[in-house]
Design brief:
Radius of gyration: 19 Å
Order of helices and strands: HHHEEEEHEHEHEHHHEHEHEHEHEH
Helix content: 40-55%
Structural class: alpha/beta
Bound molecules: ligand FNR
Number of helices: 14
Distance between the termini: 50 Å
Strand order of the largest sheet: 4-11-10-9-8-7-6-5
Number of strands: 12
């Protein structure tokens, strides 16, 4: 074991900041515009308190759970984030191995810097595939089919990105568009993407993403794949109900890590609204701002089946490669285990709404 390993996610963030060029750290860390939602995603967890129950035998804690029928060692899974080679030369292969070692799900980003095939053959992690819908539907469809034939278990359709949010750090840094090997041979790239300065990533997204993305596209996606489809980027009861109506297999409460619409609500503050609207029909996941095991505990108490973590895994990868990504997930698992023990919950099912006190509860 190395000396002085980080002891929490925050310390991994510091290491990542030191390890990465500023342009890449800013890309990972940044949010949209004023970054209000970015701060609030984390701050909102801080406003929820725990209601521990005592004198319960907690000598055995079982964090295991299932998602779409797949067994996981804990309810913490890896969110889809693009371009892991910015953090480590092994990229998503290292992340997938870390997820496999932790017996959890890895959601591979559409913007992966490793080929889907490479990630699929690198380990036996349960893998879901995240999809962006491009103007070129044939490109999106080809990638869905490739993922399906390679044994990915679900499609995570990102619905909060018909157009890219305004990430000012990327604009300022003239962020390059990371390489996307999965698109090679499927579409040609405009090498001139940088001629007007600003964020090349933004210009690439502008050229590729389809702003006409609508509920009809969920039907289209259902017609081209037999995999279950989770909708990622829902923050209202209205859309959650619609998601169930159109046959989504799961709803992911997400504001894209505050990288899309600034002043969207912090996700943990709307989780309960979505859970109520879904009324148990499908699992509800949440991401954005999870930095501690107690955050995971709070999400479970408010009805989440699982949480996804984005930046923390990226920080681990940037600081220490596969071992760092794995350590981040393990630390969060240990923190969750501790929170469960100290709240008197021996299994995920024992974590209930009465174990948390939200701001709303205090006002009532
Ligand atoms: C993302 N996110 C994201 N989401 C998605 O659906 N497809 C993608 O390619 C990406 N790429 C991406 C890159 C980076 C650097 C970040 C930080 C985020 C959003 C991601 O899936 C997730 O919603 C957030 O990261 C969750 O918030 P935290 O855990 O980072 O606070």
């Amino acid at each position: 074991m190395e000396d002085n390993l980080p002891v929490n996610v925050r310390e991994y963030q510091e290491l990542a900041k030191k390890a990465l060029p500023k342009m890449h750290y800013d890309y990972i860390n940044g949010g949209a515009e004023d970054e209000y939602t970015l701060r609030e995603n984390i701050a909102a967890y801080g406003r929820i308190l725990l209601r521990p129950r005592v004198l319960i035998d907690v000598s055995k804690i079982d964090m295991s759970t299932t998602l779409l029928g797949y067994n996981m060692s804990s309810p913490i899974i890896v969110a889809p984030t693009g371009a892991h080679k910015l953090a480590n030369p092994e990229g998503e292969v290292a992340t997938a191995r870390a997820a496999a070692a932790c017996k959890t799900v890895m959601v591979l980003s559409f913007s992966s810097s490793c080929k889907i095939e490479e990630v699929a053959s690198s380990c036996d992690a349960i893998r879901f595939y995240q999809l962006y819908v491009y103007k070129r539907r044939d490109v999106s469809a080809t990638l869905v089919r490739r993922a399906e034939s390679l044994g990915f278990k679900a499609i995570v359709l990102t619905v909060d990105t018909p157009v890219l949010g305004r990430r000012e750090a990327d604009i300022r840094n003239k962020m390059v568009a990371p390489r996307m090997p999965n698109l090679e041979g499927l579409m040609s790239f405009d090498d001139d993407l940088d001629s007007e300065g600003g964020s090349k990533l933004e210009r690439f997204a502008h050229e590729t993403l389809d702003p006409s993305l609508s509920w009809k596209d969920v039907e289209w996606l259902k017609s081209i794949t037999s995999l279950p489809i989770l909708l990622k980027g829902i923050v209202t009861a209205e859309d959650a109900r619609k998601a169930v109506e159109v046959g989504a297999a799961g709803v992911i409460v997400s504001n894209h890590g505050a990288r899309q619409l600034d002043y969207a609500p912090p996700t943990i503050s709307v989780l309960e609204e979505v859970v109520k609207a879904v009324a148990g029909a499908v699992p509800v996941l949440v991401d954005g701002g999870v930095r501690r095991g107690t955050d995971v505990f709070k999400a479970l108490a408010l009805g989440a089946t699982a949480v996804m973590v984005g930046r923390p895994v990226f920080y681990g990868l940037a600081a220490r490669g596969e071992a760092g990504a794995r350590h981040v997930i393990e630390m969060l698992n240990r923190e969750l285990e501790l929170a469960m023990a100290l709240c008197g919950c021996r299994s995920v099912a024992e974590v209930t709404r009465r174990h948390v006190l939200t701001e709303g509860d205090r006002i009532r």
